[in-house]
Amino acid sequence: MVSQITSLEYIEVGSEIEALLLESKLIKKFKPQYNLISKDDKSPYYIHITKDKFPKPVVNHIAIGSIAGPFLTGFIARQILKSFRKVTPYHSESPCFYRHLGLCSPCPDDPNTSVKDYLKNISKLKQLLRGQFKQVMSAVVKSQDFETAAALRNLLYQPTSPEEYVTNPNLQSDRRQESLVSLKEALERCGLSIERLHRIEMYDVANLSGTSATAAMTVATDGEITSANYRHFTIHSQGPNDVAMLKETLTRRLKTAWPRPDLIVLDGGTSQLSIVTWDIPTISLAKREEIIYTPASSIKLPRSHPGLQLLQRLRDEAHRFSRRLHHKHRSVIIKTHA
Question: Is-cis flag, bond preceding 106, omega within 30?
C-alpha cells in the first residue's frame, strides 16, 4: 500500500467518536480495497439493534440491516457503544450488573420498567450511531433532560455528524476561525481593541481554605486548545485569597521567556481584574453567569456564541488542570500525617 501512495489528505474532527463514525461513513461511500478486507481476510464489523421486546445492540459481521459500520475491528464498534451507553443506557445481560452503574436505566430487570421508556433510549442510540447528534441534543434539551444533554456535550463538545465533515472537510478549522473573529468583535464592543488572537492564556486557582494552593495556565493557539503549552504553578501566597494567588501566578508567568499572549483570561469577576498592571489585553470570565468583564465594561454573550464557547473550554480545562496538581499536593499532606 505504501508504494502506491501519491498524496495524503485528512479531515480534522472534534472527537474520537466522530473520527470513527466518519471513517465508517467514508469506507461505505468509497469502498477502498485496503479498508474493506484485512490481511487475515476477515470481514468488517457492524452494529445491529435486536428486535427483542427490550432491544439491545450487538456487533457482528452482517452488513444487511446494520445501524452502523463497517468498522475495521470489533473493538472499535464496542468502544463506540461503550461511549454512547453513558448518554443512552441500554440492556445487555441478565442479571444486569450495569443497572447500579446507571448504564442500564430504565432496566428490564426492574419489574416496574416501562417498555415505552426503554425504547426511547434505543431510539436515541440509533440516532447517535447514525451520526444524528444535533437531533438527539435538540430532543433532550426540549424535554429538559439536562443530565443527558450534559453527558452528550461532554462526549461530543460540539456534536457534528459525519455528513457535515464530508460536506466541509475544513469544518473544524472554520469553526476555530469563527470563534476567534466573533470573540474579537465582542471584545471590541467592550472597548478592548486586539490586533490578533494567536495565543490566548486562561488562568485558574485551586485551593482548600488556602492550603495546597495551585494555579493552572491553559492555552489556545489560533483557536485550538494546545495542551502541550499548559503549565502548573504551586502557590506560595498564604491564606484563602484567590486574587492574591492569581497575582502571584501572573507575576511569575510574565517573568518567563514563554511566548507573549495576545489575550489573558482570568477565572472570576471584576475583583480579579484589579491585579492587572501589565500592557497585555486582559479579561475575566465569571462562573455561572458567564459574563465577560473587561477593565472598562462587560458583556454577556449567548451560550451558543463561538467566542464564549472557546473561553468556556479553556476555563473548563484550567479547572481540571489546576485541580490535578492541587489533589496531588493534598494526597502528599495526607500521607505525611497518616
Answer: yes
Q: What is the chain's alpha carbon radius of gyration, rounded to the nearest angstrom? A: 24
Measured between alpha carbons, how far is 17 from 23 in angstroms, rounded to an integer? 10
Domains of the chain: 9-167 (no CATH), 174-337 (3.30.420.340)
Q: What angle do CA 199, 202, 203 make, to 5 degrees?
A: 140
Instruction: Kindly give the confidence (pLDDT) of every residue in the chain, 338 residues in length, as a single tens digit, with 9 standing for 90 and above.
Output: 788 888 988 999 988 899 999 989 888 888 887 765 544 446 889 999 999 999 999 999 999 999 999 998 899 999 999 999 988 999 988 888 888 888 888 998 888 888 999 999 999 999 999 999 989 988 888 888 878 887 887 787 777 889 999 999 999 999 999 999 999 999 999 999 899 999 999 999 886 554 568 889 999 999 999 999 999 898 887 767 889 999 999 999 999 999 999 999 999 999 999 999 999 999 999 987 899 999 989 999 998 899 999 999 999 888 888 776 545 654 554 445 44
Write down the pTM of the prediction: 0.77
